[in-house]
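Give me structure tokens for this 383-residue protein.
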Amino acid sequence: MAQTTEVMSAIRQIAAERKIDADEILDAIKYSLKIIFMDSHGLEKEDEDSVEVIMDPEKGDLNVRVKREVVERPTKHVLEIFIDDAKKVKKNAELGDVIEMDVTGDVDFGRIAAQTARQVILQKLRDSEKEAVLRQFTDKVGKIINVTVQRVMPEGDVICEVGKAKAIMPKSERVATEYYRLGSQIKVLLKGIEEDIKGKYMLISRADEGFLSELFAMEIPEIESETVEIMGIAREPGSRSKVAVRSVSQGVDPIGSCVGQKGVRINAISNELKNGNFEEKIDIILWDESIEQYIMNAVRPANSIRVDIVDKQDKKALVVVPDSELSLAIGKEGQNARLATKLTGWQLDIEGENGTTEENTESDAALVASTESDEDVDVDTEE
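Here you go.
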């Protein structure tokens, strides 16, 4: 048996300092030494089961044993043995028998084993620390955590770190208008623990609607205590959001609770979403059991005259607003109408009280502008 005191010394020293499971380390070292032995003897992956590395952590002993098949003419000398040599080990050996033999002396494991042990222990340490962090955060999936920005990849993914564990915010989960400074700490939503070829990592987001929901819970005690409930969120990250709320306790104003005295609560949420000159506007909407009233609330800040249900089964409705507030109801590039549709789950058509649509309004405005331009030309000509 070969003495491997250097290996065991490395194991005891580093494992004791870092409190790593000794059995896991030993298994990893034995596997590494098996690979070293196989590589040095030209063995392939399929030969792995024929090689076994045995280590005694108490005595510091190392043995390598292989299963050799008894053959007439060995071609794979490490895993095969000549019949005459086999009978020296086992008197009644026959062709086709498999004999397990100690081949420790065929490789000098001394220095190699010590180096391998250190490398394996350090890698095991890194893996164990990452696993410990991931286990710690498993029950925080769906919650907001703090991460440190490590780098921003060319494709747009943001790589962050939590302790020794990796967190990735894919391009699809980041806010397009946000800039992430290296080394800075940011709040993110932990969406889950994922795994790829490089190992496990945390999937995080700042664009998810759940991120906004959790910000509300952090800043508004009534939501945290479930006195006020969030009934729905429609969000275009970095631009605008609508949040529908209701009170489950009499005497509690859900919108007032979210806004806070002098707007302190909603401002705290807005500041977290603010990035440079970009600010995500948040509309707080009062949820209502009546779908007509809920839709009217959802299209605010525009005031609605009425809501007509066009198709209840397919959830289609017509929203009528004052002509003067048509553009406000629809919003820039249709954003207000789009968010109201998403929030309520109903397909909304919006028109003015006189049947005016946004297209008509734009056409009228263009016609007026054209007429005024022609009149100006006539005046200039007369002059």
